[in-house]
Specification:
Order of helices and strands of chain A: HEHHEEHHH
Strand order of the largest sheet of chain A: 1-3-2
Distance between the termini of chain A: 27 Å
Largest sheet of chain A: 3 strands, antiparallel
Strand content of chain A: 5-15%
Structural class of chain A: mainly alpha
Shape of chain A: elongated
CATH class of the largest domain in chain A: Mainly Alpha
CATH architecture of the largest domain in chain A: Orthogonal Bundle
Number of helices of chain A: 6
Oligomer: homodimer
Helix content of chain A: 55-70%
CATH superfamily of the largest domain in chain A: Winged helix-like DNA-binding domain superfamily/Winged helix DNA-binding domain
Largest interface: A-B, 42 and 45 residues
DNA sequence: CTGCATGTACTAATAGTACAAGTACAATAT
DNA sequence: ATATTGTACTTGTACTATTAGTACATGCAG
């Protein structure tokens, strides 16, 4: 498995990790049960902070793409391929694009949309993260 | 026309101006052709910076609610009432809330939603702003 | 028990962004 | 000339997200 990280990209590093690991799973480069490098190992290999890797892992765990087994390490989830199938990121982008386009057509300015979005995300916060 | 600005509110001042001017148009307090105070005049009356007022005017011009006639001043647009759907803000908030709720239900984290939103707004930018 | 590796939680530094303010400018009427 | 219109450019501040540094709980190996 080859991970390529571009720290100058506007896409956050932890997101790049998520995307590439998901890709590796769908491509078959990573199979259920396979062990992943530890957060520190991978961080060391890629010259990143281990918390950045941990953040990516955390998200993948939430999506049931990988599974943390405490001191034993982290492994590809049994249903990884299934849970990777629909790329959440793509869905989110698509759905949001759709809505934003409609809002613009009704005459809303970007500023208005941004403000409304910010308020919504601030007021009704999701637990966890 | 009575404008009330609350600088401690989380809603930006220029947005409050936009909302209230649109409100005045839909209520009939301001009619097409009516002259608006100059950016400096209004800023002085409300103890604001003239650029803050200018920003609000800029948005309203973009929405064809008002019309800048250069040195002659700024006036209510002929189709102001039509272009000034006061419910716009409510619609925007409602539509966005709806979409965000769906995305959360599919398992997307706030972080993912924020990133996707930011990218969309950055990439497919509206003119002006 | 000691030492080491695992994931995780908490805090600090940095970068990016939005709002607002200060200044300066082009255009035009008086 | 002077004043007034809207506008452009730059700066300071506050807020947020990302990333990094440190410390901790758990459990294996010797």
């Amino acid at each position: 498995m080859e991970l390529i990280i571009n720290t100058t990209d506007s896409v956050p590093v932890f997101s790049q990790l998520i995307d590439q690991i998901k890709n590796a799973v769908t491509n078959g480069d990573l199979s259920p049960g396979d062990a992943l490098p530890s957060v520190r190992q991978l961080a060391n290999d890629l010259n990143l902070n281990h918390n950045t890797v941990a953040k990516a892992y955390k998200h993948l765990i939430r999506d049931s793409v990988i599974q943390a087994k405490g001191y034993r390490g982290t492994f590809i989830h049994i249903d990884a391929k299934l849970n990777c199938n629909f790329d959440l990121n793509t869905v989110v982008t698509f759905k949001l694009s759709e809505t934003i386009q409609i809002l613009r057509q009704t005459g809303a300015t970007d500023s208005e949309i941004r403000i409304a979005f910010g308020n919504i995300m601030k007021i009704q916060q999701n637990s966890g993260e």
